[in-house]
# Entry
Amino acid sequence: MNILIIEDDARIADFLGRGLRAEGHRVDVASTGPLGLVAARQLARDANDDHQPSVLILDLMLPGIGGLEICQTLRAEGVALPILMLSALGTVEDRVAGLRLGADDYLPKPFDFEELLARLESLARRSRELRRISPARLTVADLVFDRDRMQASRGGRPLSLTAKELALLELMMSAPGRLFSRERILANVWGASEDPLTNIVDVYIRRLRAKIDDGSDRPLIHTVRGLGYRLE
# Structure
């Protein structure tokens, strides 16, 4: 397994690194938020290329960029890397915030190393299963989303989409015909930190329509008034 540890406590990072390498895993360490974000993006690209199970161990309290922001940024960019959050902040509210922003698991400090190993192995198994069942390309009519390259096209014409637009499009294309409420879209694409009363979902739906449906005689994004949106 390829493991990236983003942890600014040198003692904990060294302990984890030595222990995980002794278990036969490849381990890299980043000590700041900005360095960790760059390393996480690279780990995700490497995972797509060599198809090895990869996991990110992410501390919350980091210099530069906090762990929650790193998690939210990666998910907004469509990075599906399994994320295990570590933090001394172990309240229910802290765990819920981390999970809603896209973390796959949350382990409060102090922790038992054997439990950490078990959780990492579980995340790796789930990642392998998702790779087997999740297609690399999503297709709805003539709209195509390439998950490996994070690129979309319609009728063979490449679409210029931002990271948030890509995340929103991938969510809707993952379940064609399914009705997504504004609240569900907000939670999946923006995370729990966004004001639930914001109109940002409607703004981004309009942007997607302008890029995907305008000029086409077959619109794919549909509004169900008062309930949400579906793509079919």
